[in-house]
Amino acid sequence: MPCEPESARRARLLIASALSAWAIEELVDAATLVVDELLTNTIEHTRCRASRITIRRLTEDRVRIGVSDTCRDLPDMRQPGSGAESGRGLVLVDALCDRWGYDQHRTWKVVWAELRLKATQ
C-alpha cells in the first residue's frame, strides 16, 4: 500500500475482512486499531513510499498483524508527556496486544503485533 493516510482505511478493511473470513470478529475492533497505529507510524516516521500489510492466523486463538517497510529505523515505544498530542501509538498497541515486536531483515523490517482471543468459560 502507498505510505499515505488514505491507505489506513484500506488496511483496516483488509484486517476486518480476514477476521470475518476466519469467523473471529471479536478481534476486529482491536485489530483494526492496531493496524491503523502501525501503518500510521510507518507513514509518519519513515520516508518509505509503500508498505505491506499482512495478517496471519498463527493458531486457533492467535493472529499476527504485520506492517513492513524498507526503513532501517526500529520502533521505539516512548512515554509521551501528558500534554503531548501524539506519540502514543506503540503504547496503545502494547495495551491492546498479547505481544508485539519487530523482525529486521537486510533491506526491510516488519513491525508485528499478536492478538489472542479471550478464553470463554
UniProtKB/TrEMBL annotation:
Protein name as it appears in the record: Histidine kinase/HSP90-like ATPase domain-containing protein
Organism expressing this protein natively: Streptomyces canarius
Domain of life: Bacteria
Domain Histidine kinase/HSP90-like ATPase: 2-112
Transmembrane segments: none
The organism's taxonomic lineage, starting at the top: Bacteria, Bacillati, Actinomycetota, Actinomycetes, Kitasatosporales
Keywords: Kinase, Serine/threonine-protein kinase, Transferase
Family annotation (PANTHER family): ANTI-SIGMA-F FACTOR RSBW, ANTI-SIGMA-F FACTOR RSBW-RELATED
